[in-house]
């Protein structure tokens, strides 16, 4: 699995090695109290919200579930504290998606491999869209791909925006939990079936609601919506690549503006955790409007819903309006 490249990836290995020593100290200090009657069962540690949410639906309170990425934080930029790494090493299971959060990718190397689940394989990740530099020459394409943080070898990690891929990940989590905790296997299987059915219903709603849309070009602030676009018949064009931190070149902004004009797109989609400047720049130069499309990397008070399902249905309303669906 190839990691998504962005600035924090370059410091991840050094940072995690330094934190590993501090984590050892945290664990050592906590060892004297380990096993006390006040201690509860070891939690399942998840890397960010979509994995946390799926795991919570499966265990339904039978096991505590924690998350490394705090609400409102950009998950790509996660930095782990010593206590985070200490918690990972003591967890019942660590569930993450390789290639999305460099700090987590590095830290799982400190955890017993038998207690780590990488769900990226179950999600069947695809390479990030090559369409994100459409309209450039070959030279510009290579140059601006590097400038914008668009790694043409990287996989797109945003699997949960396709409910069918999300369901496959949930089933993988359930299978691992059932294997390690057979006493609760029947409960996990039942809860997973309910969750997968809810995802299937959502998928049906999305498919019907987006089946007849005037505009098929989906222009977003960063390329987080490739799976959603592919599932429901759109062609995504991110102003930046899969990393939201990247800054697009002038040539990229020009190419996106030209695409907006030629495709008849009327809406540029910004995100909840990303600075809207570049979306507003393209909108201002084309006469398009800006709307918010949530990649659901975390839930905050600013989210248009209290959980994954509510925000996805809010996204459906936003897309129907922005893409001119009937």
Topology at a glance:
Layout: H1 7-31, E1 44-46, H2 49-59, E2 65-67, H3 82-90, E3 93-96, H4 102-107, E4 116-118, H5 120-123, H6 138-147, H7 163-180, H8 185-209, E5 217-222, H9 226-232, E6 235-240, H10 250-263, E7 267-270, H11 277-286, E8 289-292, H12 308-322
Parallel strand pairs: 1-2, 1-3, 3-4, 5-6, 5-7, 7-8
Q: Could you please say which CATH topology of the largest domain applies here?
A: Rossmann fold
Strand content: 5-15%
- Amino-to-carboxy terminus distance: 40 Å
Summarize the amount of helix as a percent range.
40-55%
Counted by DSSP, the helix tally is 12
CATH class bucket of the largest domain: Alpha Beta
What would you call the shape? globular
CATH superfamily (homologous) name of the largest domain: Nitrogenase molybdenum iron protein domain
**Main pleated-sheet profile:** 4 strands, parallel
**What's the arrangement of strands in the largest beta sheet?**
2-1-3-4
What's the average pLDDT? Answer: 84
* Uncertain regions spanning at least 5 consecutive residues: 1-12, 22-38, 130-153
The radius of gyration computed from the alpha-carbon positions, rounded to a whole number of angstroms, is 21 Å
**What's the structural domain tally?**
2
Taken in chain order, the helices and strands follow as: HEHEHEHEHHHHEHEHEHEH
CATH architecture of the largest domain: 3-Layer(aba) Sandwich
Structural class: alpha/beta
